[in-house]
Each structure stands twice: as structure tokens, then as C-alpha cells.
Amino acid sequence: MDDAGVTPRSERAFAGRPHEALLALTIAWAASLAVVAATVLYLTDTIWLTRTPSTTQTHNAFGTWRRPVMTATWQGRLATIGAGLAVLFRAIATGHGPYSDMYEFSVGFIFIALAGYVVLERIYTTRVIGSIALPVILGMVVYVWSLSPAVREDRGLIPALSSAPILTAHVSSAIIAYAAFALSFAAAVLYLISDRWPRLGPPSTELFDDPSFRAVTIGFPGQAMLLILGAVWAHEAWGSYWSWDPKETAALFTWLIYGAYLHTRTLRGWRGRRSAVFLVIAFGTVVFTYFGNYWFGGLHAYSGM
Which of 22, 218, 279, 297 meets the CB 3.0–4.6 Å disulfide criterion with 188? Predict the structure, then answer.
């Protein structure tokens, strides 16, 4: 207790659920280390594959291409499980989902991005995309642990965040959309590398062109739901469906950019290098939307973030 007879914030954190809070923090650290290990292993594996001439033909519902021979991997799945448990126990300890601030939102993003990558790895039977996807996710891990320790405390929800069902769906849509766009970015970067330096990549650039497009077909409707549900939530919280808040404006711009990508691909027949360059540039709008509240503040700058 302090001189005023009030329990300090550090001692109030996660009051009543100290074991869940400690477990959540421990698992978060374990998941972070797993991401570090997985990133190193995926990069090492990709370097090894570029020196291996042996290939095999792959065919499934998503296309046919030649790919390097590979064996099963478990590093990405281990990181995914760890991140999922970190989100789960954080939710148990705080009593709400990962939407109170940038720390919780970023942990949720890490989990969904990892899970999405594991799905891509299984569908396309290649780990090469992980050589870009995992470093992007690792960058988010570094960002999470660079935040002030105070943000890892349970400070409760402000009144604007009290509409749990709508807010949960709104933030979940954002996490899914941004994670999908991150994976499309990773595939697009690898397409450009493989196209520019064929000896450094697998024999078929289609291996990257297809998943980059399909990731956007998930992220685009997710971004649309983010905007729709955000407008409903804004009306309940602030009394207006749209207020041109910097972050919501950036989110709308991001949705329009990816809509333009889908338009050029499906109606204009853009494929390959042009689409890959478009996706790399488009991901810049995602990064701006994600971190824009740091620079411009606005109604989304909760808890000083």
C-alpha cells in the first residue's frame, strides 16, 4: 500500500488471477523464443534448399508447380501453439480478448499470422515462404517486447471498449486481415526474388504468385468487416458512424488499395511481377494503418498507444 492507502498499479495488475497472469507471461516468452528459433531454422532451410537441385512435381486444387524436396517441419507449429496459449491465458487473466491496447492486439496478430503461415505451408507443401513470413512475425515479437512493461498489466477496459461482442468481432477482423496481408507480402517478396534471381528460388514463381493472391482474398473481406463493424461500434461508443479518425481513414484507404489489386488481377489480367510489386507497396499502407495512431493520435490511441 502507498501513503494514500491505495494499492500501487503494479500490485493491482491481474488482481485475483495472479497465476493465470504469470502463466500468460511465461508462455508469451516461450512463444517468442520459439519464433526466434523458427525464423533461424526457416532461413537456414531456405538457404539449403536453394543449393539442392532435386525437385518434385506438386499438384493440388491450388495449382501445379515444381518444388524442392522437403521433409515435415514442426518449428512453425510450435511457435503457433505457444502464441495461441499466450493469447488464451492473457484473455483468462484479464477477462477480455486482445483488444484493449497495442500490446494485446499485437500478440493476437502474431498468433493469427503464425497459424495462417502454417496453413499455407501445409497447402503448398513448401517452407520457403517462411523465410520472409517468419522474419516479419519476429519483427512484431521484437515490437511487443519493446513496449513498456506497464502495458502488460491488466488496466481494465475504458468505457469505449465495453461493447464486447461488436468490439471482439471488429478487432478479430482486423487481426485476420492484417495477418493475411502480411503473408501476401511475404509471398510477393519471394516472387520478386525468384523472378529476379531464379537460381535463388524454387523452379516455379507460381508457387508465390498463387498464395499471395489467395491471402488477399481472405484479407480483403476481413478488412471490409473491420470497417463495417468499426462503424457500428463507433456509433455506440462515440455517437457517429464515421468521424474521419486517422486510423479509420487509413483502414479505408488500405481496403481501397487491396480492392484495386483484386481489380487489376481479376479484370485487367495482372499477374506475376506487376501484382507482386503492387502487393509490396500495398503492405506499406497496412504498416501505416497498424502504427498510425503513434503519429497522429486520434480516437484509437488507447492507453497512450
Answer: 279
- Of 201, 202, 190, which Cα lies nearest the Cα of 279? 190
- The identity of residue 278, as a single letter, is F
pLDDT digits (tens, 9 = 90+) for 52-63: 544 444 444 445
Alpha helices in 125-245 (DSSP H): 130-146, 164-196, 206-238
For the chain, how far is it from start to end, CA to CA, in angstroms?
Answer: 28
Residue 103's Cβ-side half-sphere holds a number of Cα atoms within 13 Å equal to: 19
For the chain, the domains span: 10-304
Q: What's the CA gap between 231 and 233, in Å, rounded?
A: 5
- Per-residue cell: 175: 487481426
Sign of CA dihedral 101, 106, 108, 112: positive
- How far apart CA 174 and CA 167 sit, in angstroms, is 11
Backbone angles phi, psi at 241, to 5 degrees: -70, -30
Q: What is the C-alpha to C-alpha distance for residues 258 and 223, in angstroms, rounded to an integer?
A: 9
Residues in Cβ contact with 146 at an 8 Å cutoff, skipping those fewer than 6 apart = none
Q: Shortest CA distance to 46 belongs to which of 178, 189, 218?
A: 189
Instruction: Provide the whole-model pTM.
Output: 0.79
